Queue: 2 jobs
Job 1
Amino acid sequence: DAGITQSPRHKVTETGTPVTLRCHQTENHRYMYWYRQDPGHGLRLIHYSYGVKDTDKGEVSDGYSVSRSKTEDFLLTLESATSSQTSVYFCAIGRGAASYGYTFGSGTRLTVV
Amino acid sequence: RKEVEQDPGPFNVPEGATVAFNCTYSNSASQSFFWYRQDCRKEPKLLMSVYSSGNEDGRFTAQLNRASQYISLLIRDSKLSDSATYLCVVNEADTNAGKSTFGDGTTLTVKP
């Protein structure tokens, strides 16, 4: 299952600093997604991409931006990290528009102090 | 009310038991449905899709009831390795993102 990798796996950062998380896939899937998972909220969509340079907002996009300059890479940037962004971040890929299900990366545990 | 609701459990069952989870959804326009399994501190993994006619994969059976707007997952002959959190996922029409909504998950513990 090495078709999707996330980096870093763990990160501690200070409030107010920018943070970039990376998602890399080798499956050549068109669709890529960033989710966050928090207790009591399940998985919530932050941003998604449906092609190179084609991105859109999800349910909880405030404070986040994304970029996709290559099919294989999808970057999530926290512009100025806040404690409320402490979470587990999962990247996912899909060969169709969600109707085929997703493959998730191993996640990034981010702590903002 | 949440768009997708699951009984959080935990469900504690002995090995060999049959256990069933339900997941209700509020959007009648929902078009595709899935069950994922998530082990502690791991990523969710696709367990199975849910089709209108019902579908089975070994010990696992998934069913969809559109009239009552729920999906179910039945696990027969539970194994210790089935212990995990089970997430249901409901998708709206097939837009670019599919507008997937995840339930919060149902925790299953299978005991010897």
Job 2
Amino acid sequence: EAQVTQNPRYLITVTGKKLTVTCSQNMNHEYMSWYRQDPGLGLRQIYYSMNVEVTDKGDVPEGYKVSRKEKRNFPLILESPSPNQTSLYFCASSLKPVGSGTGELFFGEGSRLTVL
Amino acid sequence: GESVGLHLPTLSVQEGDNSIINCAYSNSASDYFIWYKQESGKGPQFIIDIRSNMDKRQGQRVTVLLNKTVKHLSLQIAATQPGDSAVYFCAESLYGNNRLAFGKGNQVVVIP
């Protein structure tokens, strides 16, 4: 089954404790992206990756890191989480970048992160 | 499951009626637009897209209308069903720009 898998789905952590949210897709997609979703703000892009070893900042990259060592995986790293990073996070992938004219992003189920 | 958010504009529609969801986009240079649907506890799902050289596109039970003059996008759902209850997001992109900007969403509640 074609899917985007995120882990963990739920996490409560404390300020400053490094964490990683993993994202994996099994569709051989080139493009992957991370979004955060907050009430009243919609979905905002954190980072995206055009392909292996190619990543770039989205609209709200501060406090986050990513890597793309393999095509299928695109982990989101919070080196020193803070309470303002409490949010619902979505990983997404698509065959080609959205700028090429295809908007069919496939989203994961979301990861609810709470930073105390 | 995970809920999308609070205090979104809400459209309540009777089952079987048509729904119209509106979206004002921000960038007059955007040339590609997409509608996504997000059910409670799930990630967004692609519904339909439209390029700026079109003003209308139809899918299965859905139609997207684009008015570039007033930077307005709408999604029409025919014969709304209970499974259409969700939050709907519009998104815009510039060709060649690999970023997608999402609107804040509209909640649709279908009354059986």
